[in-house]
Write a structure and sequence with these properties.
The chain has 595 residues and is α+β, with helices and mostly antiparallel strands. Helices cover 18% and strands 33% of the residues. Helix 4 crosses helix 5. The longest helix is centred in the middle third of the chain and has 20 residues. It starts with 11 loop residues before the first helix and ends in a 5-residue tail after the last strand.
Length: 595
């Protein structure tokens, strides 16, 4: 951007005003273009260079966009101090006599500008020159709608410091956010406690280029861990409930199966990581004397098989050994007294002290010791649907449930499962028209049985509207439902999608039939870039979902579709949320109105 050589503007009126106030016009104001008399456009702002991830950062939370996305600014001499000086100088310029000589007519879309916001002048980029105009305020990290008259050209000297706001993720809340949507209001209210405090930040990872920050409020005598404080305000809502999908964790000799729901699995992992990190850092912690241990109290107990610490309650003890119950898994173990660590008074606000036990107990249907000995060893790290056979009794007996493993050949009874909002489940996408309309199968084992051999009879003489028949398509016998008779149109009830067939191709089905398996779905939280999803968007979606076992979170159910978020957990690195990936690649935009 050119530097203005003439200290006086070319406009004679403005020149008179500058002479009257006896102050030179800003020398670094963007100069008019010689051809059209308008200022040269653009911005000299450079990207903000963040400190090394190995350093301890000091940050100020500027805005909370969601549980998993915040806007922060760095605090320090070359960051917040420089910005304070810059904004003070901007305030003096734009509220002084020279500010009136600057015209918003000079600004073009994409230009760096100054904008008046809440009585203060902030740096911004002019995005849309409409009425009102749309600007991005870079030191607040947000877009605003303002009248164009409240904008001014920004001198070059104010463009030397990069925009200071950047987006970050609070530690651990990204994975938990989908499960906590109903509690957001309470957690946002808790965020307000930290909004005006300088927080210490440790960078624990980077996700999509954004730092993942573990934040601490050090303003009081005792440091507060922000993500723990946010979770603690909703812990009364985090007691485990009967899940529709679960991870099996421990099966005892009586056929009682202890499971984790998707949320419980995340919370337990968080608790154990925090607890083990703290005990590693505090390796000099001294044990309490055995006589001070109290039966029924909660302790950190080292498990011999992996040498990690877990939450456990003391059941019995002797001088050298103790019987404990690991509350998040349901198993009882005899351990050495030396492996029991008591929680110190400083742990009173630790999440592992406050979080309710997360193991949920069900009685396994059809259990036998011979069949179930290796259940947890084989399937203890995977999520499976859980079908309740008998509800819990008033006397407190646990519900009887069937765990629907992929290898379970008798799981056809579960094909009539009707997913509900809030449920998380594994599924296989079988047919996709576009992200807003696709079909998926939840009961994968029943789907495989159907595909391996459908029993059909003779051709149907007079097909009925709504009837389910067998049709030979591309070498396979498939079940279809007739949706139109003339011409004959059918829906593939186990795959999804529609086909035109001849009535003579419809065959009667033989044997016991299970309900249709394919469920029509729509990808939640996204909408089209234009009028429809284009070819590239559909191709990208198909590449992300076909041939993979995905996990889906049901957000909403309409009469015809389940609105779900899909997550691919098969990658070597982090999990991939399909909606976020489509948005990142430009194939969709975020639907801010979505539930």
């Amino acid at each position: 951007m050119a530097v203005k050589e003439d200290p006086l503007p070319t406009d004679t009126t403005n020149a008179a005003q500058s002479t009257e106030h006896s102050e030179p016009f800003p020398e670094d104001l963007p100069s008019p273009n010689e051809e059209n008399g308008e200022p040269n456009s653009g911005s000299l702002l450079q990207p903000l260079e963040l400190p090394s991830s190995d350093e301890h950062w000091s940050v100020l939370v500027v805005r909370v966009e969601s549980l998993s996305r915040i806007v922060v600014r760095l605090v320090g001499e070359q960051y917040s101090d420089e910005l304070d000086i810059l904004e003070t100088n901007m305030q003096e310029l734009y509220t002084g006599p020279l500010g009136a000589t600057m015209s918003s007519e000079w600004l073009r879309e994409g230009d760096c500008c100054a904008v008046e916001h809440d009585g203060n002048w902030k740096r911004a980029i002019l995005l849309l020159r409409n009425s009102p105009a749309t600007v991005f305020v870079g030191d607040l990290g947000c877009e605003l709608q303002v009248e164009l008259s409240r904008t001014r050209p920004l001198p070059v000297r104010f463009q030397q410091l990069p925009f200071q706001a950047f987006t970050a993720e609070p530690y651990c809340l990204r994975d938990l956010a989908p499960f906590l949507s109903s509690l957001e209001a309470r957690m946002f209210e808790r965020w307000s406690v930290f909004r005006h405090n300088v927080l210490a930040a440790d960078v624990v990872a980077r996700c999509d280029g954004r730092p993942v920050l573990k934040l601490f409020d050090t303003t009081d005598e005792e440091d507060l861990c922000v993500h723990v404080e946010l979770l603690c305000c909703v812990l009364d809502e985090l007691s485990p409930r009967l899940p529709s999908s679960c991870v099996p964790k421990f099966l005892n000799a009586d056929g009682l199966l202890f499971v984790h729901s998707p949320l419980s699995a995340l919370l337990v992992q968080l608790v154990e990581d925090e607890m083990n990190q703290q005990l590693d850092e505090d390796s000099c912690r001294r044990h309490l004397r055995p006589q001070r241990y109290e039966l029924g109290s909660l302790y950190c107990v080292r498990y011999a098989r992996d040498a990690r610490f877990y939450r456990a309650r003391l059941v019995q003890r002797s001088d050298k050994q103790a019987l404990v119950c690991f509350i998040d898994y349901g198993n009882f173990e005899t351990v050495s007294i030396e492996d029991i660590h008591a929680l110190s008074p400083n742990d009173a606000r630790r999440i592992w002290q406050l979080l309710p036990a997360q193991a949920f107990c069900v009685r396994l249907h059809g259990w036998s010791p011979d069949d179930a000995n290796d259940l947890v060893e084989l399937y203890g790290d995977r999520m499976f649907p859980l079908q309740v056979v008998e509800p819990p009794t008033e006397s407190g007996s646990p519900p009887v449930a069937r765990l629907l493993l992929d290898s379970d050949s008798n799981s056809n009874a579960a094909s009539d499962i009707r997913p509900v909002p809030g449920q998380t489940m594994g599924l296989l996408v079988t047919h996709a028209v576009h992200p807003g309309r696709f079909w998926a199968v939840v009961n994968i084992s029943a789907f495989r049985n159907i595909m391996q051999g459908l029993q059909v009879g003779e051709c149907v003489a007079r097909p009925q509207l709504g009837g389910i028949y067998g049709v030979h398509i591309d070498g396979d016998w498939l079940r279809v439902r007739v949706t139109q008779l003339e011409p004959c149109r059918v829906v593939l009830v186990d795959l999804g999608g529609e086909e035109h067939v001849e009535p003579s191709e419809l065959h009667a089905l033989q044997g016991e039939q299970i309900p249709p398996l394919a469920i029509e779905c729509a990808l939640a939280r996204v909408k089209t870039v234009g009028q429809t999803f284009n070819h590239d968007a559909v191709s990208a979606f198909e590449d992300m979902v076909y041939g993979k076992r995905l996990y889906a979170m049901v957000l909403h159910r309409s009469e015809e579709q389940l609105h779900v978020r899909l997550c691919d957990t098969s990658g070597p690195a982090s999990d991939v949320w399909i909606d976020e990936e489509l948005i990142r690649k430009g194939h969709a935009v975020a639907d801010e109105t979505a539930a």
